Amino acid sequence: MSSASSSSSATEAETLRRSRILKSKLYLDVPLSKVPVIYSASYDIAFLGIEELHPFDSSKWGRVCRFLISDGALGKYCIIEPLEASNEDLLVVHSESYLKSLKNSANVASIVEVPPVALFPNSLVQEKVLYPFRNQVGGTILAAKLAKERGWAVNVGGGFHHCSGEKGGGFCAYADISLCIHYAFVRLNISRVMIIDLDAHQGNGHELDFADDRRVYTLDMYNPGIYPFDYEARRYIDQKVEVMSGTTTDEYLKKLDEALKVAASMFDPELVVYNAGTDILDGDPLGRLKISSDGIANRDEKVFRFARERTIPIVMLTSGGYMKSSARVIADSMINLSKKCLIDMGKNAT
């Protein structure tokens, strides 16, 4: 293909992407009585008990909200429910062939790492597994709009950072981070986005999607000795901070302080997308780091302070975390952010 044909094809693809984004219904108008904390009961996955075969706590998202409500930190009716991302929404980043591959239960089983899923009719897999994920994608996309309007937003889900436009994996079926950013480019007139990915695992999905896109700056702090071992994607990380198995809280927070200083000097974002995985928690079987629950609250506070002091809108996604205690840790961290006046969860905030 000639360079002219290639350029024309790229322009057509970009025009189609823009058209899909402008037609989307995911950017809801939300009343000010609601707090920019996004969650729907449809996030939680219950699939005849086989979800227990994966170490991820697939009811984590609902438990986070129940803790916040029972602690008096968040009013039950203040939470924002997103819409499900449609096929047209997903095509903004995903190829037709990738979305078609999800109509094969064996492919979905491989992505979510639960082999028995392959044995079920795809209609059931769509309803019990992919529908919850699509709702979380809708939440991540909406979060950017709310962050622009209110200064911050938390999607109590999302953060599927192992999925790119062409490939899923690691319990990530849709590329919600990439989708969120493309929507922000078009609908929010934003042209510089910083991804701060502090999940224990490398965020290879968004790294591949934005490999040659200078509008996106990636700070990824991850354990190089665990999944996904994606060496190609590592080449596209703007700021790579590797933390080895066994890294303790003090060492981790010191590295984060240094990394945020460098990031501030290297890039001036108009939006921060913060992937706040709790799989760095001490005892997490997959993350293999030794960060205390207070250390996670401190980490989140540092990232929010980085954005809020610079008046940069920030989106937080909860991402990975493979212990039942993760939900309590996330809730406690959000309460700490509220106490430090970095977020405002309303008149009920403690």
TrEMBL record:
One of its GO terms (biological process) is epigenetic regulation of gene expression. Its main location: nucleus. Its cofactor is Zn(2+). This is histone deacetylase. GO terms for cellular component: histone deacetylase complex. The gene is LOC109017114. InterPro entries: HDAC_classIV, HDACs, His_deacetylse_dom, His_deacetylse_dom_sf, Ureohydrolase_dom_sf. Residues 54-335 form the Histone deacetylase domain.
